[in-house]
């Protein structure tokens, strides 16, 4: 009986400050799943919409310059990369039902690994194709005026550099920090349960 009282005293003195409740954990998982699915669906819709608009406006114009056609092809490739990667990863989030704590932590670690791969490789190729596509696509329209060409290409290159070297790392750090906080709190809870 004395051991039971000691165990009860230890149980009641355990520090649970900073640990979310089970309802908060379930809500966090649902919110995470919903946000990721929403973002993936939105990315797919934007990619398909861009491809449809490209073909709708420029498919019936046989007198396009080779640079414009190259720009369209590069832009369609960038949109296709976006559509493919988001459609492929959507299955993981759709199948994310009734996971145990350990399975959810493994799921988040795999998601973090996928985000790193996307940041290092997939996003780079998508940004490369879309930037080249933009520069090639509008060449035909701005080539006649030297000042307009210089202004356009200066703005386009500055925008690409801004997106590549400022926005992309900044967004990745924010997403990564958010994922790390979520993983740390869930690991802390999981360690308490074991």
From TrEMBL:
<feature type="transmembrane region" description="Helical">
    <location>
        <begin position="151"/>
        <end position="169"/>
    </location>
</feature>
<keyword id="KW-0472">Membrane</keyword>
<feature type="transmembrane region" description="Helical">
    <location>
        <begin position="118"/>
        <end position="139"/>
    </location>
</feature>
<protein>
    <submittedName>
        <fullName>Uncharacterized protein</fullName>
    </submittedName>
</protein>
<feature type="transmembrane region" description="Helical">
    <location>
        <begin position="41"/>
        <end position="59"/>
    </location>
</feature>
<feature type="transmembrane region" description="Helical">
    <location>
        <begin position="65"/>
        <end position="84"/>
    </location>
</feature>
<keyword id="KW-1133">Transmembrane helix</keyword>
<keyword id="KW-0812">Transmembrane</keyword>
